[in-house]
Fold this sequence. Notes:
By secondary structure, the protein is mainly alpha-helical. It has helices at about 10-15, 35-50, 75, 80-100, 110-125, 135-165. The radius of gyration is 29 Å and the shape is elongated.
Amino acid sequence: MxxxxxxxxxxxxxxFERDRSPSPSxxxxxLRRIFDFDTVRLSEEQEVGPSPNGLIHRPRGxxxxxxxxxxxxxxxxxxNDKTYKCVQGGLHEVCEEYLDLRLTFPNQSPAAVAMFxxxxxxxxxxxxxxxxQWPAQDxxxxxLKNKVGADKAKSRVRTRCTNTPQTVLDG
Length: 171
């Protein structure tokens, strides 16, 4: 039989003095907050709704970040699938016509953005219901972000393939 020493936990040998409670008392201070979600939802719905001039405001938060206080276009616009896909595809075509596909939306020239918004408004009158045609801007931002990212990924793969030495096997 092997011998294994036993070491009792240090807390059994140590006594701790009772400290004073911090000021203010711990019973009044808490890190937990309780929110009334019905009130929060009502205030969010009012902000997204029509403004005094009848146009619908852009929702708060970051585009396509619903888990971090943002929103998705599909949920906020509340269009049926056919309308959503038709507008999305049409705006992608307008992007290709008026915007530089190598740049993200914030990096586009103001003149190009203005031409894009005018063409989008002419092609899809539903965008006139939204302040500054923000759905068109958001569709374009997502399309260009994905396009630029995909192009960068393709160029990385091409670069990796051309830098890899070729092994020739004699058969």
